[in-house]
Design a protein that fits this description.
About 15% of the residues are buried. A six-stranded antiparallel sheet has the order 3-4-5-6-7-8, sandwiched between helices. A two-stranded antiparallel sheet has the order 1-2. It has helices spanning about 20-30, 35-45, 60, 95-105, 110-115, 180-195; strands at about 70, 75, 120, 125-130, 135, 140-150, 150-160, 165-170. Helices cover about 30% and strands about 20% of the residues. It has one domain (about 20-55, about 70-195): DD-peptidase/beta-lactamase superfamily (Beta-lactamase, 3-Layer(aba) Sandwich). The mean pLDDT is about 85. A hairpin with a 2-residue loop joins β5 (about 135) and β6 (about 140-150).
Length: about 200
């Protein structure tokens, strides 16, 4: 952190930052005096019965991991996060992602409502919340995020007003953003189709 030079006034420019969620995790851990991973388990995983989502996998869980590939179709090692787990490190499945979507569709939960606050307008087609990209699709707010590590990518879109969400998981990751752009376009088309029904 001491090597980082701040080149603009905080809050005036948008730059995507992988360290930011890790710093957030560190702050939460220090504030509550509880390890970050335990906070996630206690306040998100357990209340939402996300029993197939965890930071540390047992030997049986490891046999369920899907092999990921890069753009040259080469197998990639499974990512091991050595920090707090704010940016990556949770392993999950589609059943638990559906539970997570349901959690974010319930804005009567104070932390969900807080997490959906819009903090910053970017010069792009999205605003920023708590690690959410906030976009408007056909006059409806959508909370969206794309994440990727070696051999894996995922997309999550939440539409609270229409009460639905979409999650897409891929075991392919490569440079250039082609996969990301293609999926984003298709997800928006799918969202419009669902909303129209």
């Amino acid at each position: 952190m001491h090597q980082i030079e701040i080149t603009s006034k905080p809050g005036t420019e948008f730059h995507y930052s992988n360290p930011a969620p890790e710093i957030t995790a560190y702050i939460l851990e220090k504030t509550y005096g509880i390890p970050y991973q335990k906070l996630i388990e206690q306040y998100i995983l357990m209340p939402n019965e996300m029993t197939n989502t965890r930071f540390v996998l047992n030997p049986n869980d490891q046999t369920l991991l899907i092999q990921g590939y890069n753009g040259e179709k080469e197998p990639q090692e499974h990512y091991q996060n050595n920090l707090w787990g704010g940016i990556a490190g949770l392993h999950s499945n589609t059943r638990d992602l559906i539970k997570y979507i349901r959690y974010h569709l319930n804005d009567s939960i104070p932390e969900v409502r807080e997490s959906h606050k819009n903090f910053f307008s970017t010069p792009y087609d999205f605003d920023i919340g708590y690690h959410w990209n906030i976009v408007e699709i056909e006059d409806e707010v959508c909370y969206r995020h794309h994440g990727g590590i070696w051999g894996m990518q995922n997309w999550l879109m939440i539409f609270p007003e229409s009460d639905f969400g979409i999650a897409v998981l891929s075991n392919a990751s490569f440079d250039g953003g082609l996969l990301s752009k293609g999926i984003d376009d298709k997800l928006e088309d799918l969202a419009l189709d669902i909303k129209g029904k």
